[in-house]
Specification:
single chain; alpha/beta; TIM Barrel; 3 domains; 9-stranded mixed beta sheet; globular
C-alpha cells in the first residue's frame, strides 16, 4: 500500500512531452509510480478529469524576511508553488551585523515595498553569517521549500560598512573577504549570488543599493567564488542604459568564470526595442560558450491602483486630501456628491511626487482592470480611448471608475513589457531558447503589485483564455515553470513527475482555475498591509509527499525544508 495515490488524472509531467492519463503513487516523499494503475493508497485523491502537474518552482521571490515567520509563504503557497528561490536583486538579510539590521530593513522596504514595520516586528534575528541564516530558516517549519541566494547589498555592507552603500570601490582585501564569505555561504547551501545595478532600486531613505556601482573587478571576484564552489548562479538586475557596455561585462564574467549568469529582461517603454538587442547579444555570447540566461515575466510589470492605494490619480488633489483619512465608505459618500465631484475635478494635483503625477496622467496607458482581471487590455480599453469615445475628460472617466460600487475597483498601470499595448514582446521573450520564466516577485511590492499569482496566470491566460494572440501549449507552459525553472538553479530532484524525484505536485481543476480580484489585507506583522490575489481551482498541492494545500486552504502539514545548493541530488 502506498502512502498517497493520485488516481486517474491527466498527467502533465513537466518534460514538455505528451499528456497522458494514469495514477501517481508516492512513498517516503518520493514519486514511485507515474502513469498506469497504482495499488491502493492510505490516502487517495480523485484526479479524474483534472490535471496532475509538478509543483511550481518559482525562482524570483523576496520572502527573505517573511520566511522567518510565515510557514505558508503566502500568497505563493496558494498558487501551487512548492519551491521558492529568494535573495534576488541583491537584497536580503544575511550576512548581517547586529548594528546594521535597521539599514538592511531600510533597503528591503525601499526596493521591494515591504512595510518596514512588518519586517521590524516579524523578523526574529538568530543569525549573523549567511550559514547561520540558512540554519535559522531550517529550524522554521514550513509548507514549501525555500532556497536562498547571497545578496550583494548585505555582503558588501558586512565587509565595507557604510562605505558599501556609496560609490566607493572595494579594495583588493575587501573583494577577497567578500569572496571568502560568499564561498562559505555556497558551501553551506546558498544557491547563488545576486546584485542590483538599476537606478530604480533605492532604499527607503532614497540611497542607492549597495553594489549598484560595483566595478568589474569586484563582480569578477564574486563570480570567481562561485566558480571555486562548483555551483551557484550569478543573478543580476540592470537598466542596461549602455546596453553594449553593460552586457559586455556580463559576457566577460560568464566566460572567465564559467558560471551561469542570469539577468532580468523587460521591455523598457523608454527604449522599447532594447530587449531584442539584449537577446541578440545573448545568442552571440552563447555561441562563444557563455551561459547567459534572460529572466522574463509572463505579464507586464504593472501597478494596481484604487482609492485605498497610497497613490492614485486624485491623492494629491486638495479636496481629496481633506477626506483621505476617512473610512472608505465615507470617502465614497463625499465623492458621489455632485458639488464635491465638480470641485475636485476642477483642481490639479499639487505637491507629492512628480514621478507619480506623470505616470498617473498617462491615460493612454491606464486601464480599468475589470472582473475577471484583464492584464492584456486592448488599446481601445484605455482610459484615453474611453474618454474620447464618450467625449469626456479622462479625469472624469477615472473618477467614476474609482467612485463606483464599494470602491474596490482597480486601475491597471503597466510600466514594463507593454510599450506596444500587446504581449508581442513578452511572447518573443518567453519563446527564446536562452530565457527562463521568472519575476513573480512573491512577497514584494506589497502596496502596488501582486504578481505572485504568475504561475496561475500562465495557465489561465496564456494557455486557456488568451484572445489577442497565440496561446501556449499546456505541456510547454507546465514545463516552463517546473522543469525549466528547477534546472536554472541546478535543482535536479524536482520539477518533473518521474519515479525517484521529490513528490512535489499539483492537482488542478483546469476549467475552474482562475485568479480572483486583488484585495487588500492587513495580515503582515504589526498589521502591515499588502495586496493579495487568491486563486481558485487548485484541488491539492503536495510537497514532499504530503498534502499542504487543499481547495485553496492550507492543511497544516509542514514538510518544507531549506534547499541547500550542491546538496540537491
Amino acid at each position: 500500500m502506498h502512502e498517497l495515490v493520485i488516481r486517474g488524472g491527466r498527467i502533465v509531467d513537466g518534460s514538455g512531452g505528451a499528456i497522458f492519463e494514469g495514477d501517481v503513487a508516492v512513498d517516503a516523499g518520493r514519486l514511485v509510480q507515474v502513469g498506469g494503475r497504482a495499488g491502493r493508497g492510505r490516502e487517495e485523491i480523485d484526479a479524474r478529469g483534472r490535471l496532475v502537474t509538478p509543483g511550481w518552482v518559482d525562482i524570483h521571490s523576496h520572502y527573505d524576511g517573511q520566511a522567518t515567520w510565515d510557514p505558508y509563504l503566502t500568497p505563493s503557497g496558494g498558487h501551487g508553488v512548492t519551491t521558492v528561490v529568494m535573495g534576488n536583486c541583491g537584497i536580503g538579510f544575511a550576512p548581517a551585523r547586529p548594528q546594521r539590521r535597521d539599514w538592511l530593513i531600510n533597503v528591503m522596504e525601499g526596493v521591494e515595498d515591504i512595510p518596514g514595520t512588518a519586517l521590524h516586528e516579524g523578523i526574529r534575528w538568530r543569525w549573523e553569517s549567511f550559514p547561520e541564516y540558512l540554519d535559522a530558516l531550517a529550524d522554521t517549519p514550513r509548507a514549501l521549500d525555500v532556497a536562498a541566494q547571497v545578496p550583494h547589498s548585505a555582503l558588501r555592507d558586512y565587509v565595507m560598512g557604510e562605505r558599501g552603500a556609496t560609490r566607493a570601490a572595494a579594495g583588493d582585501d575587501e573583494i577577497a573577504r567578500m569572496g571568502a564569505l560568499l564561498g562559505d555561504a555556497l558551501r553551506a547551501g546558498a544557491v547563488g549570488f545576486s546584485t542590483s545595478r538599476t537606478r530604480l532600486h533605492l532604499a527607503a531613505d532614497g540611497s542607492a543599493v549597495a553594489g549598484s556601482f560595483a566595478d568589474e573587478r569586484e563582480l569578477g571576484g564574486l563570480a570567481e567564488a562561485l566558480r571555486a564552489a562548483g555551483h551557484g548562479v550569478f543573478q543580476l538586475v540592470s537598466d542596461f542604459r549602455d546596453a553594449g557596455a553593460e552586457f559586455a561585462t556580463l559576457r566577460r564574467l560568464a566566460l572567465r568564470s564559467g558560471v551561469p549568469v542570469h539577468y532580468v529582461l523587460v521591455q523598457d517603454p523608454e527604449a522599447p526595442g532594447k530587449w531584442r538587442t539584449l537577446l541578440q547579444l545573448t545568442d552571440a555570447a552563447a555561441r562563444e560558450g557563455a551561459a547567459l540566461t534572460a529572466l522574463v515575466g509572463c505579464r507586464p510589470v504593472g501597478m494596481l491602483i484604487n482609492l485605498d492605494s497610497r497613490h492614485h490619480p486624485f491623492s494629491e488633489h486638495l479636496s481629496y486630501r481633506r477626506i483621505a483619512a476617512l473610512p472608505l465608505a465615507e470617502r465614497l459618500r463625499c465623492l458621489r456628491e455632485p458639488g464635491f465631484r465638480a470641485q475636485l475635478l476642477a483642481e490639479r494635483p499639487s505637491g507629492g511626487s512628480a514621478w507619480w503625477r506623470t505616470r498617473l496622467a498617462q491615460y493612454e496607458n491606464l486601464y480599468r482592470l475589470g472582473d475577471p482581471p484583464d492584464y492584456e487590455p486592448a488599446p481601445e480599453r484605455s482610459i484615453a480611448a474611453i474618454a474620447a469615445r464618450q467625449s469626456r475628460e479622462p479625469e472624469e472617466v477615472v473618477y467614476d471608475i474609482l467612485a463606483a460600487g464599494d470602491g474596490s475597483d482597480w486601475l491597471y498601470l503597466p510600466l514594463f513589457n507593454y510599450a506596444d499595448a500587446s504581449y508581442d514582446a513578452l511572447q518573443a521573450m518567453l519563446a527564446h531558447p536562452h530565457s527562463v520564466l521568472s519575476l513573480a516577485d512573491g512577497g514584494a511590492h506589497c502596496g502596488l503589485i501582486c504578481d505572485a499569482g504568475a504561475p496561475t496566470f500562465l495557465l489561465t491566460h496564456w494557455v486557456r483564455d488568451r484572445v489577442r494572440g497565440p496561446r501556449l501549449p499546456l505541456a510547454r507552459a507546465v514545463a516552463m515553470q517546473s522543469a525549466r525553472t528547477a534546472a536554472a538553479y541546478g535543482l535536479r530532484d524536482r520539477g518533473r513527475l518521474a519515479p525517484g524525484l521529490r513528490a512535489d505536485l499539483n492537482v488542478i481543476d483546469f476549467e475552474r482555475l482562475h485568479l480572483q480580484q486583488p484585495r487588500w489585507a492587513n495580515d503582515l506583522p504589526a498589521s502591515g498591509r499588502r495586496l493579495l490575489q487568491p486563486a481558485q481551482g487548485y484541488v491539492a498541492t503536495v510537497c514532499a509527499g504530503r498534502v499542504t494545500w487543499r481547495d485553496g486552504a492550507p492543511t497544516g502539514e509542514l514538510p518544507g525544508r531549506v534547499v541547500r545548493g550542491a546538496a540537491v541530488a
